Amino acid sequence: MLNVQGLTQRYGARVALDGLSLHLPRACFAVLLGPNGAGKSTLFQVLSGLFAADAGQVLIDGLPLQRQGHRALARLGIVFQQPALDLDLSVRRNLQFHADLHGLGRADAAARIDEEAAALGLVPVLDRPARELSGGQRRKVELARALLHRPALLLMDEATVGLDPASRQALLADLHARVRTRGLTVLWATHLVDEAAGADRVLLLHQGRLLAEGPPEDVAQALGGGTLEQAFLRATRAPTARLEAAPP
């Protein structure tokens, strides 16, 4: 579903993505785990077409993003870290606007809005302004919006920032269920190790490079054993620890 080959992105002298390669199969819940500054958001900006990478290529469902961007991006849904709702519009109008951008007919869009609202518990707030919603409800609206056009690949960039534990777990559970029942592929970026629990695949990103990938237990073992959290902390702190230990 997602094939990234040799992706490099620089900001001046700083290398945010350093020849990154990864792939995800269909119907997979993958967690992109990395500390702040690892390159997760930069990767998502490239995958969503907001940035053009300096080198490498991206294929979404076999479609090259660089040459067939319109078709490739039509297969993609995304929830960014920063909220992106029009707070003055109702939930329904926010969703309708997104459906219009994707060229969905009004009848089809209305049916899909009702379907996603029912699945995510948003029916009671459909006609309320988005600014009246809680943080968890707004995230659900953004998820409903990202799913309206039936993407095959869903990107979630630090999507639980600001959510309480119950809302966080509910969001994760809903997406795991969609992977099982709809064959959706999810790439969930986070720096919270506990959100990798139950993932089909973990990709550990650090300083723009992929340190390890595979089932959570295999990643932990590849990085020295122990729990995934212990392995994550050990792998991502090692360069700093070596620097601090170096003689002046």
Task: Give the SSE map.
Blueprint: E1 2-11, E2 14-24, E3 29-33, H1 40-47, E4 55-60, E5 63-64, H2 69-73, E6 76-79, H3 91-101, H4 106-120, H5 135-147, E7 153-157, H6 165-182, E8 185-190, E9 201-206, E10 209-214, H7 216-222, H8 228-245
Parallel strand pairs: 3-8, 3-9, 6-7, 7-8
Antiparallel strand pairs: 1-2, 1-4, 4-5, 9-10
How would you characterize this protein structure?
This protein is of the alpha/beta class. It has eight helices and ten strands. The strands form two sheets. Strands 6-7-8-3-9-10 form a six-stranded mixed β-sheet, sandwiched between helices. Strands 2-1-4-5 form a four-stranded antiparallel β-sheet. Helix 3 packs parallel to helix 5 (135-147) and helix 7 (216-222) packs parallel to helix 8. The longest helix is centred in the last third of the chain and has 18 residues, at 165-182. The chain is globular, with a radius of gyration of 19 Å. Mean pLDDT is 91; it is low at 239-248.
**What is the straight-line distance between the termini?**
48 Å
- Low-confidence parts, pLDDT < 50 over ≥5 residues? 239-248
Compute the CA-based radius of gyration: 19 Å
What is the overall pLDDT average?
Answer: 91
Strand arrangement in the largest pleated sheet: 6-7-8-3-9-10
| Number of contiguous helices | 8
Largest sheet: 6 strands, mixed
Q: Tally of extended strands?
A: 10
**Shape designation:** globular
Question: Secondary-structure element sequence?
Answer: EEEHEEHEHHHEHEEEHH
User: Structural class from helices and strands?
Assistant: alpha/beta
Report the β-strand fraction as a percent range: 15-25%
Q: How helical, in percent, are the residues?
A: 25-40%
